Amino acid sequence: MASNGTPHPKELAHKPLADGMYFGESPRYHDGQLYISDMTGRTIYTIDAATGQKSVLVEVENQPNGMCFTDDGALIYSSMFDAKLYRYKDGEHALYSDMSAVMTGYCGDMAIDAAGRVYMDDTGARVLHGEPPKPGRMLLVGTDGKVSIAADSIIFPNACMISPDGRALYVGETFGCGLLRYDIDPATGALSNRQQAWAPSALTGKTDDDPRVSMIGIDGGCMDAEGGLWLSMLGLEQWVRLDPQGNVTHRIRTEGHATACSLGGEDGKTLFLVTNWVPEGENLFKAMVAKRTRCTVSTARVEIGRGAARP
Questions:
Q1: Angstrom distance (rounded) from CA 169 to CA 44
Q2: What is the pTM of this model?
Q3: Phi/psi of residue 296, each to 5°?
Q4: Distance in angstroms (rounded) separating the CA atoms of residues 239 and 275
Q5: Fold of 10-301
Q6: For residues 20, 75, 148 and 26, what is the CA-based torsion angle, rounded to 10 degrees?
Q7: What is the residue-level pLDDT of the chain in tens, covering all 311 positions?
C-alpha cells in the first residue's frame, strides 16, 4: 500500500514502435495510423501502428505542435511560430484560423469538442526564442475560425483533454505543476468554475514551491472511456493513470522525458507513448533549438480503452 493508504500503482511495460525524430509531440491515432508532430524537425509524420513504418505527411516551416481530427476526418494542425491552424484532408491544405492577433506564446496542445470548437493552449511565452516561462491562456477557436480567450493565468498550459461526457476540460500546468479542470458551457463552449484537480505532490510528496519540482509538471495527456487520465510526467520519466477520484492506478516508466501519450489501436487499448531525450546537463529549450534532442515512440497495452473522450 502507498503511504496514503491506496494500493501501489500497477506497473506496465512498453515496447518500441518508431524513432528517428527530433522532438515528438501531440500523438493522435486515426484510421490505423498514428500522427505525430516532430516539432523541431518541422514535420508531421504518420506511423503505421502495426509496423512502425514512418512517412512524411507535411512539412511545417514554423514548427507543428498540437493536432486534432474533426468528425469528418480532417486533420487540424498547428503552426507554432506564426500562430496559425491549418486543415488537411485528401491531400489538400487550407488555412483554418489565424490566431496571431491573440496568441502571446506558442500553439500548444489542443482538443476539439463535438460541436467542432477547438481549445488551444497558448503557452504565454516564446521559450524557444529565449523568453522565460510565464502565465498563458486557453484559446477557443470557433467553427468560423474566430478566436477568443477562454481562460487565463495558466502557468505554461500543456495537455488538453475533454471528458467523455463533453462537460469538462482538463489542462496541465507544466511549470505550475498541477492539473486544472473547467466546466464547459455546452451552448457556447465557454469555460468556467476553474478547479485544481490534481497535483504531482501526490507522487513526490514535494510541495509546489519546492525548487525540485520545476521539471516534474504535466506535459501531454489523454483520457479513457471511464474518465481516467493518462498524464505524461515530464521530468519524473513516467506516465501515470489517474482514476476519476484522483488515485494513481497505473504507472509506465521510461528513460527520458515522458512528453505525450494517446490511446488508439484497433480496440482502443493501445497507449502510444512519446519519449524525448535531452543530453544530460543541457537546458531543455536550448537543446531543442540546437536539435540535440531525440524522440522515440513506444506502445503499452492498457485495460481501459479510448472511449468518447477527446482528443
A1: 26
A2: 0.92
A3: -130, 155
A4: 10
A5: Neuraminidase (2.120.10)
A6: -30
A7: 343 445 689 999 999 999 999 999 999 999 999 999 999 999 999 999 999 999 999 999 999 999 999 999 999 999 999 999 999 999 999 999 999 999 999 999 999 999 999 999 999 999 889 898 889 999 999 999 999 999 999 988 999 999 999 999 999 998 776 899 999 999 999 999 999 888 766 565 554 444 444 445 889 999 999 999 999 998 789 999 999 988 999 999 999 999 999 999 999 999 999 999 999 888 888 999 999 999 999 999 999 999 999 98
- Whether the Cβ atoms of residue 66 and residue 26 lie closer than 8 Å to each other: yes
Task: Beginning with the edge strand found earlier in the chain, give each strand of the sheet holding 43-48 in spatial order.
Answer: 24-30, 33-38, 43-48, 54-59
Amino acid at 198: W
Q: Say if residues 128 and 112 touch (Cβ distance below 8 Å).
A: no
Sign of CA pseudo-dihedral 12, 17, 21, 27: negative
Q: Which residues pair with 135 in a beta bridge?
A: 155
How far does CA 147 lie from the centroid of its chain? 20
49 Cβ neighbours under 8 A, 6+ residues apart: 17, 29, 32, 33, 34, 264, 265, 270, 272
| CA atoms of 143 and 83, how far apart (whole Å) | 17
- The C-alpha atoms of residue 47 and residue 28 are separated, in whole angstroms, by 10
DSSP conformational letter for 211: G
Nearest Cα to Cα of residue 47 among 37, 59, 35, 58: 35
Residues 6 or more apart whose Cβ sits within 8 Å of residue 201: 177, 207, 208, 213
Q: Which residues of 40-75 are buried (b: 16+ CB within 10 A; e: fewer)?
A: bbbbbbbbebeeeebeebbebeebbbbbbbeeeebb
